[in-house]
Design goal:
With 426 residues, this protein is α/β, with parallel strands linked by helices. Helix content is 42%, strand content 13%. The strands form three sheets. Strands 1-9-8-5-4-2-3 form a seven-stranded mixed sheet, with helices on both faces. A hairpin with a 2-residue loop joins strand 6 and strand 7. Helix 3 packs across helix 4. The chain starts with 20 loop residues before the first helix and ends with a helix.
């Protein structure tokens, strides 16, 4: 198989259509007017359309999901504890700390990668005010069980749904669950505004507070500052992009799910590779193709595989490595009771999955992984097991390979041979 006609197989691409004529018309209309921000007609259209689509009473746009998380977190008593996974993007927990809340890290489920319902239940104390769960990589949580847990202990329940636009739980799009769900519209997401986000809720009081918070704390007629607010508004330009991206969401989701199925078919029998499993009753949007790499079974670590794929101009990510409670920012929260989170982090490898990725690219990526394992098994497995981390770091940073060199390899098998030779002589 020849290398696909891609200068670089990117990890993600924005979900914006190739035909931008309608975007051009809307931008021209916008620039002829006088309102670029302050809740103009395009932001209003986007909020109304999302509310109808998600079957929720209120949608409030924000400049990014982090700001949205901070807004909902501001409703909690300062100093109280919030149950939150450590296996998540840092912004999830940053929002809590910015609002002077105490994160209480909860372990993850090894199959869905989401927050462990059982560990969350075990860590509720008198100081707990809320649960902030994450639909990791767009895979919905065990929502019904978390809602029952929160109700039983009189806790608020928020969902970080940053990567979950378009995901379904028991046949319904996410958005109306818990006290609020917070979504991202950044450039990597299934629906993109370039940058942006929105909060979905059925809570009228919370929606009112968000209205004040995102407009400097002002009430509707600006006669009073009801809360200590800030500038949390989405402007009109990203709203235009989001509206057009939303038009293509059904097509985008269909394409992503088809590619995810192809990945699973091609890699299902590869020893040492396992997939994030959908939650029972859920239909994920496949924000990314999240793998777990067992180094003993595959033959090397996820870190080394990332270096190898980079040589083939295939971008990958290792979400979330390091796991959050092992980072410098959260050194005060280091704990040894999150073994599943640490395993997920150590073995994480996320492959490209986006609208512009094609079947031949997925086939090439899978062929590359299979070829690497074949070559490793022809050599000394114990050598690679023991040296993978050290050699991976060495190859990755000390001996970079130019992209034109990588592209000169005709097949993944040839790339695997070259990579193995480098490892053996490092």
């Amino acid at each position: 198989m020849n290398t696909p006609d891609f200068a670089l197989i990117r990890f993600s691409c924005p979900a914006i259509p190739d035909d931008i004529s309608e975007i051009h018309v809307a931008v021209t209309d916008l620039l002829k007017g006088c309102q670029l921000s302050n809740f103009g007609k395009y932001v209003t259209q986007l909020e109304n359309r999302l509310a109808e689509l998600l079957g929720v009473k209120y949608v409030r746009t924000v400049p990014n999901a982090t700001t949205g998380l901070m807004m909902v977190a501001s409703t909690l008593p300062q100093g109280s504890e919030v149950l939150v996974p450590s296996f998540t993007f840092p912004a999830t927990v940053h929002a809590l700390v910015h609002m002077q809340l105490q994160p209480r890290f909860v372990d993850a489920d090894l199959t869905t990668f989401n927050i462990s319902h059982e560990d969350a239940a075990a860590k509720i104390t008198a100081k707990t005010s809320a649960i902030l769960a994450v639909h990791v990589f767009g895979n919905p949580c065990r929502i019904a069980e978390l809602e029952a847990l929160a109700q039983r202990h009189n806790l608020k329940l928020f969902f970080d749904a940053a990567a979950a636009t378009g995901s379904e739980y028991h046949g319904r799009l996410l958005g109306a669950n818990g006290d609020a769900e917070v979504f991202s519209l950044s450039g990597t997401k299934v629906v993109s505004a370039g940058e942006g986000g929105f909060i979905a809720t059925n809570d009228e009081e919370l929606a009112q507070r968000i209205d004040w918070l995102r407009n400097y704390g002002y009430n509707e007629d600006r006669t009073d500052c009801r809360v200590v607010g800030f500038n949390g508004k989405l402007s009109e330009l990203p709203a235009i992009l989001a509206l057009k991206s939303l038009d293509y969401m059904p097509e985008n989701l269909k394409h992503r799910r088809k590619l995810a199925e192809q990945y699973q078919e091609l890699l299902n029998e590869v020893e040492g590779i396992s997939f994030q499993m959908p939650t029972e009753g859920a239909l994920p949007n496949y924000f990314t193709m999240a793998l777990q790499i067992d180094p003993d079974q595959f033959g090397c670590s996820a870190e080394v595989i990332q270096v190898y794929l980079d040589r083939l101009n295939i971008e990958t990510k290792r979400y979330f490595a390091p796991v959050l409670h092992r980072t410098s920012a959260y050194g005060a929260f280091v704990t040894n009771d999150l073994p599943h989170s640490e395993q997920l982090s150590n073995r994480s490898l996320c492959l490209p999955l986006h609208t512009r990725l094609q079947e031949e690219h997925v086939a090439f990526i899978c062929e590359a992984l299979i070829a690497l394992q074949e070559k490793l098994r022809r050599g000394s497995q114990s050598y690679y097991r023991n040296e993978a981390a050290r050699l991976g770091a060495s190859v990755s940073f000390a001996k970079p390979v130019a992209h034109n060199v990588a592209r000169s390899w005709a097949t993944p098998l040839a790339a695997a041979q070259t990579f193995e030779d480098e490892l053996a002589t490092t």
